[in-house]
Amino acid sequence: MKGVGPDFAGYMERLGEDELRSLIGDLWASGQSEPENIGVSDAAIRAAARELYRREGSAAMEWANNLPLKDGRKLVLKHVIVAAVEDSPAAAKSWVDLFQQKYAMIGENPFREPAFRAAGKKGVDALLEAREVMGDGIGESLVRGPLPDDFDFKRLLTEVRDTNGLNEPLKLWAARDPDVVWKVLKEMDSGEPESAAKYFSSLFDGISQTQGEDAAAKWVAGRLSELPGELRQKALFSLMNTHNMRYQVVNE
Predict the structure, then answer these.
(1) 167 lies in which domain range?
(2) What pLDDT does 251 receive?
(3) For 251, phi and psi rounded to 5 degrees?
(4) In sequence order, what are the residues at sequence separation of 6 or more whose Cβ sits closer than 8 angstroms to the Cβ of residue 106?
(5) C-alpha span between 46 and 182 (Å, rounded)
(6) Residue 165 lies in a domain
(7) Is residue 122 part of a domain?
(8) Measured at the alpha carbon of residue 134, what is the angle toward residues 129 and 136, in degrees to the nearest 5?
(9) CA-to-CA distance for 82 and 110, rounded, in angstroms?
């Protein structure tokens, strides 16, 4: 056992390629005949597909795409492509496009989140490349999960402008060093700190994660006086949208 669930990955590493393919077929059949176990079957298929991609690369996607539909082609191909975009969004893009055109439902894209999550772990260069390849989803966070200690938040902030996708990375950065974040935000807009007001709520959330809500409220209250009147109101509105009950605390 690994963590709170079975060590599927460790088991898959001990199997040969033909055994992995055979197991994927058996797991699919099991999930169809025993719907109550479909969650476990899916997790195991995901681990097997990931291991098959690790060994065979694009050949694993070719194999999955040639499975009969009744044998789980869509699910298996999806899991193999997810493994591919985590490895290299650029190399997997043609397969992402194929899946989206042939199999995805309207509004469905199971590849963007894992692509950004994996890229973020590698650093800002990989994350910016993933965004260029995968595109910028409306209101979608670019950062998912943990980031390396040397992640260049400032570069991300200056190269990816005017998007709701920056809220999560700003929270993570503010949790580490809110004063630096504030300085950068104020300097971004030629002396008119529009971004500082826009992301006020993200700063509050980030500081809350490491210092607690009382400390976060005191910190943001101390920064309101640095904003001109109209932007001060915008900053307060940013807080009210998500922290309405704390408005009086911040405004004192």
Answers:
(1) 140-252
(2) 45
(3) -85, -5
(4) none
(5) 41
(6) yes
(7) no
(8) 95
(9) 8
Residue range 226-245: mean pLDDT, rounded: 77
Domain count, the chain: 2
* One domain, residues 76 and 172: no
Alpha carbon 140 to chain centroid distance?
Answer: 9
Bridge partners (DSSP) of residue 5 are 2
Give the pLDDT confidence of 102-158 residue by residue, as tens digits: 998 888 889 998 999 999 999 999 999 998 999 876 556 777 668 898 999 999 988
According to DSSP, residue 193 is labeled: -
Is there a single domain that holds both residue 145 and residue 252? Answer: yes
3-state helix, strand, coil in the chain (%, to 5): 75, 0, 25
Contacts of 248 (CB under 8 A, 6+ apart): none
pLDDT at 158: 83
Tokens 């590493």, located at residue: 13
Same domain for 105 and 10? yes
25-34, 82-91, 156-165: range with highest mean pLDDT? 82-91
| Residue 23, C-beta contacts closer than 8 angstroms, at least 6 positions apart | 15, 44, 48
